[in-house]
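Exercise 7. Predict the joint structure of the components listed below.
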Amino acid sequence: GENVEQHPSTLSVQEGDSAVIKCTYSDSASNYFPWYKQELGKGPQLIIDIRSNVGEKKDQRIAVTLNKTAKHFSLHITETQPEDSAVYFCAASTPDDKIIFGKGTRLHILP
Amino acid sequence: GAVVSQHPSRVICKSGTSVKIECRSLDFQATTMFWYRQFPKQSLMLMATSNEGSKATYEQGVEKDKFLINHASLTLSTLTVTSAHPEDSSFYICSAGGVNSPLHFGNGTRLTVT
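Solution:
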């Protein structure tokens, strides 16, 4: 089945700098890659997603890139702010629509 | 606003009792919903896929008789943890959506079994 690897597990970034989280997936049939932000005690919130027919997508300070050949996808957050501190999960959708998550990255924005 | 509503947000129960968690899709119909479990500081693990009008499909290692799933309507799925034990204490999260729409999650249910 699908396996999603995510790194780093923890990331500390100075406020205003950029943060990058990287993921790989194993199932070449996966075609949808969402990213979720989870704050303490809450469910994951979708922040951006990308489908396999697109290589890059941007929404304000957040961008995602996808390399289908290498089975890599990445999340980029620019001009980080304190409210960006949270746990971020990448995920891949299997052909039967199951979402398989990476292990998460705890992002700390330092003042 | 929220597109998936989950209730209750927190529940404490005694060992041996059963607990029901509800997941509702708001403003859209969901023929499929997913149930996840998340232990502290860990990722979300898919437990089962809830299918409207038919039996749920469970992931390997998840006991179907312990985690009863009912998806009786296009907007409601329920997860019942039967004969709960302390090791069932966890954060349970449902989601709905799919191929043609993003998957949205409820805000989770924190279950504590004493």
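Discussion. The first strand of chain B starts at residue 4 and ends at 7.
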